[in-house]
Amino acid sequence: MTIKVSEMAPEFTLKDQEKNDIKLSDLKGKKVILSWHPLAFTSVCTDQMRSLERNYDRIQEKGETVVIGLSIDPYPAKQKWADILCIDNVKIVSDFFPYAEVTKAYGLFNEENGASKRANVIIDEDGKVKWVKVYEASELPDVEELIENL
Fold it and tell me: What is the DSSP letter of 63?
């Protein structure tokens, strides 16, 4: 079942494209956007991450916010993809090992295709889920809606 608003966000530690550990509990006091995309190197996923990167400064106007793009792709693929997309501000992380553990904890694993669903989750400064939206796999999430809900 998909995580619900007002629930505590499940803890995780994942590596970003710079090989840094991103630990959710270390981000307390900041807002966090978790933006799940099914598979790196696909068109809608590419547009989703580019939109977050392009609007990063606008997102920060709503308060200090860590923006994280997640999928179950292995780390080397995520690192290369972030380089190709010229992602500098958004953290691109791999939920590959243990396989999809974080994605499953948030109820966003798609059993039919073995990838994550496309979704955005906003976590508040206290670690509680503030907003959740799951999208169709082919749908590009509306960054305006995301910013509005910060």
Answer: S
Beta-carbon count within 10 A of 122 CB: 22
Residues with Cβ within 8 Å of residue 16, at least 6 apart in sequence: 22, 68, 91, 92, 93
Crossing angle (nearest 10°) for helices 43-54 and 75-85: 60
Residue matched to tokens 């598979």: 39
Q: How many other CB atoms are found less than 10 A from the CB of residue 13?
A: 12
> What residues contact 80, with CB distance under 8 A and at least 6 apart?
none
Q: How does pLDDT run across 85-129, given as a tens digit for each residue?
A: 999 999 999 999 999 999 999 999 999 999 999 999 999 999 999
Q: What are phi and psi of 103, to 5 degrees?
A: -60, -40
Which residues lie below 8 Å from residue 128, measured CB to CB, with a gap of 6+?
6, 7, 8, 9
Its pTM stands at 0.97
Residues 26-67 have pLDDT tens digits of 999 999 999 999 999 999 999 999 999 999 999 999 999 999
